[in-house]
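Moderator note: this is an archived Q&A kept for reference. The question asked for a predicted structure of one protein chain; the sequence and the answer are reproduced below.
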Amino acid sequence: MKRVTALLCAITMFGFIFNTSYIEAATVNPKILLEKKFPREQVTVSKSVDLNGDQKKEHLLITESGNFYLINSKGVIVLIDTNYYSDEEPTIHILSVSAKEKHVAVTLDYLPSNTELLVYKYQNGTLKKKLSVMGDVGIEISKTGEIIQMWKNYYSEGGWKIALASYKWNSKKDKYVGSGELPR
């Protein structure tokens, strides 16, 4: 009888510890969680959003050192990419590419007019890069998730004109498909 009681107490205590650590990871401020694990990192940009429809938020953080992190809903910190430097503060966008799917886009602005766009899809607890484009003139993102790249198409005799390329998500191909005047 004592063994059964001891076993039940141990199971209850393990369940309490597990639930407490899970709740702690889900409720702790993501900036504090990252800075606790990586004390030299200072978060400059952050956004929290439910990317996979599980009613729990994932956290996206860009640090002063140019690192891009994801903290998933279980509190796991994943380094996604590095060298996120720009003349302006990076911007994190959430693209609703379908009723059930959201992508993460990051824009990096370089003065006077260049904009780099990196787009990621949430897969298996991390973000996978699906598109990387540079807009010499700029980048626009529509509410439907369509990306317009404006770039300088140079003439052989000198000068240039603005060229437009459009990128839309194709879920069957699992990639962004470009149309219009695509850069060479």
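Archived answer notes: Confidence is low (pLDDT under 50) at residues 14-26.
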